[in-house]
Design brief:
This protein is mainly alpha-helical. The chain contains eleven helices and two strands; from the N terminus they run H-H-H-H-H-H-E-H-H-H-E-H-H.
Amino acid sequence: MIFRRPTDAERAATEEDLAAREDPYHVTQASRIYLLPNSMTAGNLCCGFVAIIFCIKASYEMRLAGVRVASELTPLSITYFKWAVWLIFGAGAFDALDGRLARMGGRESLFGAEFDSLADVVSFGIAPALMAFFLILSPTQGYPVFQQIGGFLSFIYLLCAAIRLARFNVITNPLLHRDAKDSNKDFVGLPVPAAAVTVASLVLTLLHLAEDSKDLQRWALALPPLLALIAILMVSSVRYPSGKQVDLRTRTRLSTFVLLIAIAGVIMLFKEYGLLACTLSYIFYGLVRHWRRSRVARRVSNPL
């Protein structure tokens, strides 16, 4: 067999092709599937899908038992809803891992970003929306008006979640030209996983109250405005802190470290109430910070 040495033109073409393949916008590089990060995304999607199944099973169990108010939930329906809640939490854990593993290994791709967004629509969009409709905003609360607004608000939540994910994909595109004010690492709008975890925490608190046979109808009146607020914040310009830059080499101040330990202690001590308090604190922290920054900006632009 005779081996022929490649010509200079062939070597140049090969090098050019290899360089193109390393370009994140080359079709080969953009569509690559990396095993570990995308396995985490698949786990996220699986958790969301199974959570939807448990929500449907819980609703079916409630209808079979003739449940009219949340304080009369059957033990089996409470168990189904709790499984759905923990699966949404699990989806959040998988979602946190997939991006971090991709960044740590330098294995980010456009396919991974799109796959992650599609999984998030299921786990943090459809699953919480169904959970809110079946338990929080459904006729089981005993208010007929909830029949009319429950499906609408759940769809608005899902719509805002999908818009938030689409906007995130657009504004994080590296080809976009950004202003200096857009160079920070904050999230623009409430992150979809945080919104879903807030809804799940709220459901977990309601289930805990239902197990204690407490009347939840008065609490139900405040739930539609809260769900609407979460939906609006997802598509707002309110900035929320991101933990993407935190890794094993991240340093922190002693006060911040103590605060994180205190938060973990509150969650462990008060469980459902502590988790709900933490998620709501994150939501209102962004709102208060946005309001304070807006006041400072107005004072600077209008000193008189």
